[in-house]
From TrEMBL:
Name of the protein this chain belongs to: DNA 3'-5' helicase
Organism field: Futiania mangrovi
Listed PROSITE patterns: UVRD_HELICASE_ATP_BIND, UVRD_HELICASE_CTER
Signal peptide: none
Catalytic activity annotation: ATP + H2O = ADP + phosphate + H(+); Couples ATP hydrolysis with the unwinding of duplex DNA by translocating in the 3'-5' direction
Length: 717
């Protein structure tokens, strides 16, 4: 009999204890945020080890991220009071499946040193196949085919299992054939993609019952966190493995299912009972994480969803602070507001480690990052690089650097074949050799090389075209304001198009980031000034040590908790995203609402939601409406700071920022307001104001530029 007095059980409530101690059979813990699901899972694991029910190597434990796996490993050690030697089968679906596949590679038609291809390689492969098949790549870009293959794999469908009709016109009817050839190519290359890891191990188990039987004997216990976000392929894999011991425990929350767009199936929760007859469903209703106000706000919000199982949640203690909702003028003011708030809380003794900013779209991060750099607030971006470190941003900057300084070899090399223009390794080697020989930069060497017949005609033409482009852009740089120059370069180089054709889930975010880059430039007088700013920001190397505010996406925040949570950008079109608003049906909108629920429930003590009335989206200023989700939070739990009146807010906003650049800003609210203010004599009169007032009234680009320059002089005084 288990030792029910074990120290690690102390403090658990009855339902939690039951979920920990019921080690035999199938258990599904279905419960809301912060009710201790992860804690139950960890304690259960500790319990199994502590009572000798299994060795660490006999437990299969699946977490959603590698980070979560590491944390679980540490917590188990703490619970059983000692170091638990490695848990070889604790990790993500992909990590575990890769490990299994390596052990039996030959049976799956692979060698054990197979490589796992990244998305770029996969797409390149598909592209070759499309070309060989003569498929029109304009109509059927490789990335789109890739995304479809990925969707099939998420559903557990190999080429021969895709239902007839589904692939009907994909790639002009050749979609399935491409999928089949793609798989064959992968085998020849001794390679797999991510989807294969699950698909191939599942097939391995089906084709080789002896292998499966081995794992059935091996895995005495199966544990799964964040169960609501498993996709069909993962579910089938799991079910096969768990059929052995039948000791499986999954924990999840249907209200936190936020990966539907990646193929997750909440339906797996419903299948559980039929696939594991006699499964015990345990509900946890007490939330230990948040104050009643936070929990009430989140519960009220999620109650709007129709598609949910429904549950009760309660928490003890002081009602706590209400959720604060604050409207601000624009994104910059929002960042300023959040930074000030963080400084105040910090002064009051709250550690920066206990604060987080959770954004809907990663392009929202830049404004916060820059504010933090300016005000010297240490921060970390979790789950991704910092804004200026992102691939697409570095690429765009590389183009600009080559325009600015033709001899910047590193920048040139970065983009010479991005997007692909047939300037591969061979060309680059020839370029390097020539540059070394002559002691000149790559660009200079390229200029000489295209005059000779050293390169193959195709490469020579492509290189000459690129050099022409740069020459033209350098000329344009003389006359075009730099934000427009950047747009031109990104368009003409084909860089933007590359992501427009890209149907992968990351592509829209990358396009947003590029637009955000253009927007960021507007605060600077010229390209040189901007590039210098970037290098300064980048130099601001964040030390590994010390407290830091966390910035991450809402998706990345799943399972985590913080004392104070900032939730910026709650506006229609941003959150819920425009994409979900455009689509018919409630599915997408309900998933956005679950994301909002995840956001609020990360907070233990304090949640501050902000929205701006002007947001620069898709490259133009838009008046933004507060998110509908704000209306759905019950009034009793909210304290709304009324959106400040235009001018009240305006007084803290620099009216001259960005006033003189792209024509789009002339119709921006900021510009209109400026004109109005000048017209109504709202600024203290001065010779400068007097003279610019006239320029403002004319409203033409040249005057506006002069105006902006004038104001900068004005500011320096
Ligand atoms: P999420 O749905 O967000 O993943 P969860 O259900 O996994 O949440 P946990 O992260 O396990 O919840 O727990 C939330 C917080 O409540 C943690 O700080 C945890 O330590 C605490 N907690 C859980 N159970 C108890 C308990 N019985 N007594 C005290 N604190 C608890
Ligand atoms: Mg959890």
């Amino acid at each position: 009999t288990p030792d029910t007095a074990a120290p690690y059980l102390a403090g658990l409530n009855e339902a939690q204890r039951e979920a920990v101690l019921m080690t035999d059979g199938a258990v599904l813990v279905l419960a809301g945020a912060g009710t201790g699901k992860t804690r139950v899972l960890t304690t259960r694991l500790a319990h199994i080890l502590a009572t000798g029910l299994a060795w660490p190597s006999q437990i299969l434990a699946v977490t959603f991220t590698n980070k979560a796996a590491r944390e679980m490993q540490e917590r188990i050690g703490a619970l059983v009071g000692g170091v638990v030697e490695g848990m070889p089968w604790l990790g993500t679906f992909h990590a575990i499946a890769a490990k299994i596949l390596r052990r039996h590679a030959e049976l799956a038609g692979l060698k054990s040193n197979f490589t796992i291809l990244d998305a770029d390689d996969q797409i390149r492969l598909i592209k070759q196949l499309l070309q060989a098949e003569g498929v029109d790549e304009k109509r059927w870009p490789a990335r789109m085919i890739h995304a479809q293959i990925d969707r099939w794999k998420n559903k557990g469908l190999g080429p021969d299992q895709v239902p007839g009709g589904e692939a009907h016109d994909l790639a002009g009817g050749k979609g399935l054939d491409i999928y089949r050839q793609y798989q064959e190519r992968l085998r020849v290359l001794n390679a797999v993609d991510f989807g294969d890891l699950l698909l191939l191990t599942t097939r391995l188990f089906q084709d080789h019952p002896d292998v499966l039987a081995d794992y059935h004997r091996k895995f005495r216990y199966v544990l799964v966190d964040e169960y609501q976000d498993t996709n069909t392929a993962q579910y089938l894999w799991l079910r096969l493995l768990a059929q052995g011991s039948k000791n499986i425990c999954c924990v999840g929350d249907d209200d936190q299912s936020i990966y539907g767009w990646r193929g997750a199936e909440v339906g797996n929760i419903l299948r559980f009972e039929s696939d594991f007859p006699g499964a015990k469903i345990i509900r946890l209703e007490r939330n230990y994480r948040s104050t009643p106000n936070i929990l009430g706000a989140a519960s009220g919000l999620i109650a709007t969803n129709e598609d949910r199982l429904g549950k009760t949640l309660w928490t003890e203690g002081d009602a706590g602070e209400k959720i604060r909702v604050r409207g601000l003028w624009d994104g910059e003011e929002e960042a300023r507001f959040v930074a000030e708030k963080i400084e105040t809380l910090h002064r009051q003794g709250q550690s920066l480690d206990t604060m987080a900013i959770l954004v809907r779209a990663s392009s929202q991060m830049r404004e916060f990052e820059e504010r933090f750099v300016t005000t010297a607030i240490p921060y970390r971006v979790i789950g991704g690089p910092r804004f200026y470190e992102r691939m697409e941003i570095r690429d765009a900057l590389a183009y600009l650097r080559v325009i600015q300084s033709p001899d910047d070899d590193l920048a040139f090399e970065r983009i010479v074949n991005k997007p692909k223009r047939g300037l591969g390794d061979a060309t680059l080697q020839a370029l390097h050799a020539a540059a070394r020989l002559e002691g000149v930069s790559l660009t200079a060497a390229a200029g000489a090389l295209v005059q000779t017949d050293e390169l193959k005609p195709r490469a020579r033409n492509a290189l000459a075209a690129l050099l022409d482009d740069f020459a033209r852009w350098r000329q344009a740089a003389e006359v075009l304001p730099h934000p427009e120059l950047t747009e031109t370069v990104l368009d003409e180089s084909g860089y933007t198009e590359m992501f427009q054709m890209d149907r992968s889930p990351e592509a829209p975010g990358r396009l947003d980031n590029l637009k955000e880059l253009v927007r960021a430039m507007e605060a600077f007088e010229n390209l040189g000034g901007f590039l210098e700013h970037v290098s300064l920001v980048m130099e601001n190397e964040q030390s590994a040590e010390g407290e830091k505010v966390s910035i991450m996406t809402l998706h990345g925040a799943k399972g985590l908790e913080f004392d104070t949570v900032f939730l910026p950008g709650w506006e229609e079109g941003l959150f819920p995203s425009q994409r979900t608003l455009d689509e018919s049906g409630l599915k997408g909108l309900e998933e956005e609402r679950r994301l909002a629920y995840v956001g609020i429930t990360r907070a233990k003590r304090r949640a501050i939601i902000t929205h701006a009335s002007n947001r620069r989206l898709y490259n133009q200023w838009q008046s933004a409406l507060p998110s509908r989700f704000l209306e759905e939070i019950p009034d009793a739990h909210v304290e709304k700071e009324s959106a400040p009146g235009l001018y009240a807010s305006y007084s803290t906003h620099d009216p001259f920022r960005g006033a003189g650049h792209a024509p789009s800003t002339y119709s921006s609210p900021g510009w209109a307001r400026l004109r109005e203010n000048v017209a109504q004599g709202r600024y203290a009169r001065s010779p400068v104001v007097d003279s610019v007032a006239e320029l403002v009234a004319t409203n033409d680009p040249a005057a506006a530029n002069a105006f902006a320059k004038g104001m900068r002089v004005f500011h320096q005084k």
